[in-house]
UniProtKB/TrEMBL annotation:
It is found in: Cell envelope. This is Formate dehydrogenase, nitrate-inducible, iron-sulfur subunit. Transmembrane segments: none annotated. It comes from Neobacillus rhizosphaerae. Coiled coil: none annotated. The gene is fdnH.
Amino acid sequence: MTKYVKYVDVTKCDGCRACMVACKNWNDLPAEPTEFLGSAQSHAKTTADTWNVLQYIEHENGKGNLEYLFRHSSCFHCTDAACEKVCPENAISYTKYGTVVIDQDTCVGCGYCTQNCPFEVISLKEYKDKNGKEYRKAHKCTMCTDRIDEGLQPACVTTCHTGAMEFGDKDAMIQKAEQRVKEIKDRYPNAMVYNPQGVGGTHSVYVLAEKPSVYGLPDNPKVPTSAVLWKDYAQPIGKAMIGATTMAVVGAFVANKIFSKKANGHDEDGGGNHE
């Protein structure tokens, strides 16, 4: 099965926010009242009801001139996703396209995915059942996997009028990104392809005009070591020894201890975002 990549060239973005509108419309996401941020940016970051955000960044370039940098910000769909590893209910999985999705029927709203995502793009939404009892579910960009199933492209890509976003075969999109960086190096000396290998590479690959930190991105995001040990070693061994059902109970307890580090003021491996 072909793996797909969403290619984003920030140097072609004009900040129109059409991608945000298209995402809201296709996914039937409600509007959110927001406070004035002092610029044209409408949201500080992605939320449970806003799965992509157009960033406006004031930046002083190498010539001492002030300029605006734009970036379409949404889930990176990591090849080795921390959110998938830390989920104790196996509610997060990879699709055949390489995208990362959350099963809302299985999600229990524990929040471990939100605490361990190196890009901080997952959020919890509060709900109430028919009896008034509150519960939570995790939400994020799905890369419009339902559209891909029908042979369509993600809604944000189809509405981009500047050609800043494209969607296609993984290898072809990465090659395109590498070629684009070569073309713009004279104008943007710090230009680079952002496809961090600490998370196995991503299925949203960016051409950045400046260093990742300028855009509030981690330079070298990694999957927390505790998540790797838990998902790839402890869980399989535990299930084999004591059974899947018992392991699920044990897993919920252990996950609560090792995956809530950010809530307690700890950030393992320094992989957190700075947006």
